[in-house]
Specification:
single chain; two-stranded antiparallel sheet; binds zinc ion
Length: about 220
């Protein structure tokens, strides 16, 4: 956590597998970027339709898309696309990479941020297969894209974005928009409290500062 995150970009594409992925790792940084006038777009591989226990996918998908749109708007993101791949069954295959390529063509970002692809968040806490598969598909698709940065969110990493208390509050409000999802996930803890705990976990550093942390996957070497 020693290198400031690059600022030489106008448009960032956040390419992740599920609704709520941006909120767990980077919404505070996104809020900072949009308030500074940058454009941030979210593209999600799935609608997170398998993510609400006890609810059929055809009902959960539209609810989660709606919650994601509201959540994005809180941190200044007004374009949210869903690619409708099957939640929980993502594979790094040609059709996935073609869909990622299409999203990159359509939005032409200078900055791309995807999800953490490491095997474990912490010792014994395994990452999800969808995250690893999708993040690797993004990295493979972008292998020769030397005019675009590629970062991953990460619990630990070299690159950081310093965020303010207001950015943190926006990130908490943004995650709390996943109301139906969070209230089923943990019925005993109020949604706003769950959101605050998660955002604290991802932004609060040992020295008391607030930062969003990223790993560099792929450097931008030409404009
Ligand atoms: Zn996810």
């Amino acid at each position: 956590m020693t290198t400031p995150f690059p600022t030489d970009w106008r448009t960032a594409l956040v390419l992740v597998p599920h609704p709520d992925d941006p909120e767990y790792g980077m919404a505070a940084a996104v809020n900072r970027w949009t308030r500074e006038g940058k454009e941030v777009i979210y593209v999600m591989a799935t609608s997170g339709e398998a993510g609400i226990e006890g609810m059929p996918p055809e009902k959960a998908g539209p609810i989660r898309e709606e919650e994601q749109r509201r959540s994005a708007a809180v941190v200044g993101v007004h374009t949210v696309d869903f690619l409708h791949f099957p939640d929980g069954q993502l594979t790094n295959d040609a059709s996935m990479r073609a869909a990622i390529d299409h999203a990159l063509e359509r939005h032409r970002p200078q900055m791309v941020i995807t999800i953490f692809t490491g095997e474990e968040y912490a010792p014994g806490i395994r990452n999800q297969s969808d995250h690893i598969m999708f993040g690797q598909a993004v990295a493979e698709t972008m292998e020769d894209h030397d005019d675009q940065w590629l970062f991953e969110t990460s619990p630990n990493g070299e690159y950081f974005v310093e965020v303010t208390d207001d950015d943190v509050e926006a990130a908490v409000a943004s995650l709390a928009e996943h109301e139906e999802y969070l209230s089923v996930l943990d019925p005993d803890t109020p949604v706003i409290e769950q959101a605050r705990n998660q955002v604290d976990m991802s932004t609060l550093q040992d020295d008391g500062s607030r930062r969003s942390i990223f790993i560099l996957r792929h450097e931008r070497t030409s404009a």
